[in-house]
Amino acid sequence: MSSSNRGVAYIRQNLVEVQDIPFPRLEDPRGRRIDHGVILKVVTTNICGSDQHMVRGRTTAPAGLILGHEITGEVLELGRDVETLRKGDLVSVPFNVACGRCRSCKETHTGVCLTVNPSRAGGAYGYVDMGGWVGGQAEYVMVPYADFNLLRFPDRDQALAKIRDLTCLSDILPTGYHGAVSAGVGPGSTVYVAGAGPVGLAAAASAQLLGAAVVIVGDVNPLRLEHARKVGFQTVNLSLDATLAEQIAQILGTPEVDCAVDAVGFEARGHGHEGARQEAPATVLNSLMEVTRAAGKIGIPGLYVTDDPGAVDAAAQRGALSIRLGLGWAKSHSFFTGQTPVMKYNRALMQAILWDRIRIAETVGVQVISLDNAPQGYAEFDAGAPKKFVIDPHRMLKQAA
């Protein structure tokens, strides 16, 4: 077994580096031995938009943090209490670290597990304030509570053949699906998705899977909008001076939709020619209330943080945004927020991928890169490339192609 390891470390604002890091051990972040964990050889690990928030200096992430919460791997070593997994199994790792034993986990709210993070509810790999679990943008990673957390693929060869799609099961596909489900998308729905990044496109694809009649995706990035159109969605350009409602009316004949999804989060920009140049963290939420019909639902998988040192004003630095709650109240809207409980959806979405009901890699623009090229992937993603960068630390995907 190898004793070396390399991973992507956050160094300072706008800088990440690939470094030699310790080989994982069957220990929790406080150095206590755990026998319910496994060590994985990482097959794929993806760069996420929420990773970019940290790299841009928009969180309190410490220097040296090993990044990465979207992980697919091969079981290399098992703790003595692991019962349902074997060496060589290919597995998807939900980005939520969850114990499977607390009240939240038993009620399927694995995004807010009560035991894996001493400072707050909810844990995640390689993320600020989420329990100190080492990230998976590396060659090897440790996963605790393995029997509960890991989704084993039923056929290794079949999984490797579809690995570019299955790698999306760790976060963005369940997150997009959660956004669509919590927005109440169903057969015949008209849906607006704010954000043409990978999560927004995953939400749009999920809306189609759920039977939506029309899915409209909005963004200020022309390259991402062009990609969204190519993969089958209607689009609106939020950098234009025409309002969102006016652009929706041009498509639907009415300025409102049945359901809406916020796949942007707290680094939103304003609408219109001038507004798109300026950060306006409440813009998306307020615009969704304007264009969602009375008694409609709004799913909010986009990330909002409690502390944002780079925010535009003192209130936003504390996560306090100028939201028109009165408008949402008057229209009897329902809002659904929080981390996605990945395990609630990932098994069914795995079957949808294996049986060709959804082609998520094509939809989100998966591009495979090496671990050494991760810093370049971060830079291109931050510049707005219409891609989902997937890191292949051991060059296993070339073998699978």
What report would you give on this structure?
The chain is α/β, with parallel strands linked by helices and 401 residues long. Helices cover 28% and strands 21% of the residues. The chain contains 16 helices and 17 strands. It has helices spanning 49-55, 103-106, 146-149, 156-161, 163-166, 172-182, 198-209, 222-230, 244-252, 283-291, 314-317, 325-330, 346-354, 360-364, 374-382, 396-400; strands at 6-12, 15-20, 38-46, 70-78, 90-93, 96-97, 123-124, 140-143, 151-152, 190-194, 214-219, 234-237, 257-262, 292-299, 334-336, 366-369, 388-391. The strands form four sheets. Strands 3, 4, 5, 8, 9, 16 and 17 form a seven-stranded mixed β-sheet that branches. Strands 12-11-10-13-14-15 form a six-stranded parallel β-sheet, sandwiched between helices. Strand 11 (214-219), helix 8 (222-230) and strand 12 form a beta-alpha-beta unit.
Number of strands: 17
What is the terminal separation in angstroms? 26 Å
Kindly name the structural category. Answer: alpha/beta
Overall residue-averaged pLDDT value: 95
In a nutshell, what does this entry contain?
This protein has 401 residues and is α/β, with parallel strands linked by helices. The protein has helices at residues 49-55, 103-106, 146-149, 156-161, 163-166, 172-182, 198-209, 222-230, 244-252, 283-291, 314-317, 325-330, 346-354, 360-364, 374-382, 396-400; strands at 6-12, 15-20, 38-46, 70-78, 90-93, 96-97, 123-124, 140-143, 151-152, 190-194, 214-219, 234-237, 257-262, 292-299, 334-336, 366-369, 388-391.
